[in-house]
Design goal:
single chain, 440 residues, mainly beta, Type 1 dockerin domain, Methylamine Dehydrogenase, Chain H, 5-stranded antiparallel β-sheet, 4-stranded antiparallel β-sheet, disordered N terminus
Length: 440
């Protein structure tokens, strides 16, 4: 048998072996999920992040829809989106014209990234942000103009697929943004009216207690916590001269906040509205509302100072930049209304440069906004066919793709275990090291 014929036979068998066993409720590949804030249709899309940083559309589910002349219905206007730490569940919050309560959509994730609307729950109007704190607890804002903003904590029942409130705390007037500490012991909430950031401790029994609060002097929009857990930043929006980025220091042991003495920091962009920090803690990326730009800043972890790198990406017209998210050295940006819409992927350079990984990808929904990030299944990637053990079938799949790289015929992404965009000796070595083992 020629090697070419063997490869073709093996490749055909490999694709057959990959079909079953996909519903593991955890995406195997790095994936981003995008919520769509459409007034007539709310939806969530799954987008695979390829080894070279390019994006591939996977799936989209509709969470709610109505006709143009119909009254508001639950499930449209996906505003907040968050993924559980174990990668098995998404929760989408909705900001419709309903005034008494709003829907929370609970979405399950399959191993191939496909989505299913598993259940729905209700929360106070309006939940402009939602964050998984742990696999058990979820924090949701009550964002209302009655000057009574709150953070509500829910316990997620994995069997009944329900959310049960365990506690709530008033955090000020108008709370629209949450951030979770890397230790998952603290949640931070902002108040645009009082211009404060509040730290809250999450107890193992579902309790929620205020640690302290700091006044940053400007609107603290789009909270972002450093991966070291020692700093928190936010955009100042149109407050002040419209160019402010604010920051506070976090005591990682107690969660207590103290104002950074050198803040606010100046951004050349107009109306900073969100801050995210690169996983290596070297860069802060700031989204802006009025000029729709994303700009990078060097982050000094000791002083907390932010220094503009000079690198900028302009999404388009005012308000067209949705949100930012980071994964390793990748940056994702949604374009939510200016002409073609969707999500961009960039590779972040050490100098703050944002290098595009291909063009804008359509997420096939209306008004793409929030982004949730999943790094991929963290363990036992060697179980390529997902049957719970590493064996002959997995070896066959890998050998069928051996020597092939991304973009070539016969390349199987799941066999690229080290994600260097080629299936080679290193991948084979990893699989053989696990051969015969069961996956946890």
């Amino acid at each position: 048998m020629t090697s070419k014929r063997y490869r073709n036979l093996a490749l055909g068998a490999a694709w057959g072996l990959l079909a079953p066993g996909l519903a593991l409720a955890q995406a195997r590949f790095p994936t981003i999920f995008v919520g769509h804030n459409g007034n007539l249709e709310g939806s969530v899309a799954a987008v695979r992040v390829n080894c070279d940083g390019t994006l591939t559309f996977v799936d989209r589910i509709v969470t709610g829809a109505r006709n143009p002349n119909d009254p508001a219905v639950p499930g449209t206007n996906v505003y907040g989106l968050t993924i559980s730490p174990n990668g098995r569940w998404l929760i989408a919050s909705h900001a419709t014209a309903l005034t008494a309560a709003e829907q929370l959509s609970i979405i399950s994730i399959d191993a191939d990234g496909k989505l299913d609307l598993a259940s729905t729950s209700w929360t106070d109007d309006s939940p402009l942000d939602v964050q998984w704190v742990t696999d058990e607890f979820v924090a949701v804002t009550r964002s209302n103009t009655d000057y009574n903003g709150r953070v509500i904590l829910y316990r997620f029942d994995h069997e009944a697929l329900t959310l049960v409130e365990t506690d709530r705390e008033t955090t000020g007037g108008f709370c629209t943004s949450l951030a979770v500490h890397p230790s998952r012991q603290f949640v931070f909430a902002q108040d645009s009216n009082a211009r404060t950031i509040t730290s809250l401790r999450v107890g193992g029994n579902g309790s929620l207690d205020i640690v302290n609060q700091v006044n940053v002097g400007y609107y603290p929009l789009g909270l972002g916590v450093s991966p070291t857990g020692t700093k928190i930043y936010a955009g100042g929006g149109i407050s002040g001269d419209g160019h402010q980025v604010v920051g506070a220091e976090i005591n990682p042991g107690t969660g207590a906040l103290s104002l950074l003495g050198n803040q606010p920091f100046y951004s050349p962009g107009t109306s900073p509205k969100q801050v995210v920090i690169s996983p290596d803690n070297a860069l802060a990326i700031v989204a802006h509302g009025t000029d729709a730009t994303a700009r990078t800043f060097f982050l000094d972890d000791e002083s907390g100072a932010l220094t503009y790198t000079g690198h900028v990406f302009d999404v388009g017209l005012q308000g067209s930049l949705g949100t930012l998210a980071v994964m390793d050295d990748l940056l994702f940006i949604t374009d939510n209304w200016d002409g073609p819409t969707g999500v961009y992927s960039f590779r972040l350079g050490a100098d703050g440069a944002m290098t595009p990984n291909g063009p804008l990808l359509s997420t096939q929904g209306v008004a793409p906004l929030d982004i949730a990030v999943w790094h991929g299944r963290p363990e036992c990637l060697e179980d390529i066919d997902g049957d719970g053990s590493v064996g002959q079938a997995d070896l066959g799949i890998l050998l069928a793709s051996f020597g092939r790289c991304a973009g070539e015929g016969g390349f199987i992404a799941s066999a690229d275990l080290d994600r260097d965009c080629c299936v080679g000796q290193a991948d084979l070595g990893r699989l053989l090291a696990w051969f015969g083992a069961d996956c946890p």
